[in-house]
Amino acid sequence: MKDRFNREINYLRISVTDKCNYNCLYCKPDNDSSYQEKEMLTDNEMLAIITAASHMGVTKIRITGGEPLMRKGLIELIAKINDIQGINEIVMTTNASLLFSQIERLKEAGLSRVNISLDSLDPIKFKYITNGGNLSDVLNSIDKLLKLEMTPVKINVVLMKGFNDNEILDFINLTKDKAIIVRFIELMPIGDHDFSFKKHYLSNEEILKQCPSLIALNENNQETAKYYQLPNSKGKVGFISAVSQHFCASCNRIRITSDGKVKTCLHENKEYDLLDCIRNKNGSIEDYLKECVNQKPKSHKINETDFEKVKRNMYKIGG
Ligand code: SAM
User: What confidence score (pLDDT) does residue 30 get?
Assistant: First the structure.
């Protein structure tokens, strides 16, 4: 389906839980509580939403969270999503803490690949930023994904000034010997917490300046990232500049939160209550989603004077 600005909407990101076993400093303040179980979408409700979305032309589903692997029965849910006609790609964003032992079963269920969030290669700093995470769980999962050819394996890194910006080259060097894609994602002003965007934001342009050996790849892809490579390396380096050089003109996605709200733009407070539509039988899911797509704004307003930061924390959206 096309929106008002002629963008083809074919990508749905669905958060399957708002629970997360990490408390990343910039994402989930640890005093924040989760929703009640009854406020969350059930498996059947998610399947009904994805079926309706597939009728509108959605072909790609991203499973996210919270930490998606904390949802009970996730593998069975993925297998059922995989059976929905028209859905030809199911991917997941995860912190990889619980991934290693489940990779084979996830693949069998129909998951094509995963994006892994990883903000430090220093085990102590990693533990600090995640509030207890174990770096080797993540690195072992990356190796296993490569071995099982669930590729490309994408590593998403949020670089923050004065925090992990001394690790830029370490991350880039990961791509020398491994066929992975390391993507730097700009810190975004989002959520109701004390982590200072102003203090820690670092533009991708500044990061790129520190890496003169990266060669730009002229790839004609539809992705949000611009890609580069070190000479003779197996992997690639991507830059996702959601703040400094937004890609709203080619935005093809909508988001559903685990409590059943539709977000048509990550950086807008406006949400649409799909859960209410489903539970109170206020019309068809497909008609409701179409109405939402029709309201999708042209672009975010982060760099405009009347910008209002989104209050919902990222772990309750899914990234
Ligand atoms: N738990 C999963 C994970 O860690 O990938 C999925 C949910 S997590 C909210 C998704 C992504 O959002 C992570 O890559 C995280 O780094 C990113 N994120 C959270 N807050 C952010 C912010 N303010 N700016 C940029 N990315 C953010």
Answer: 67
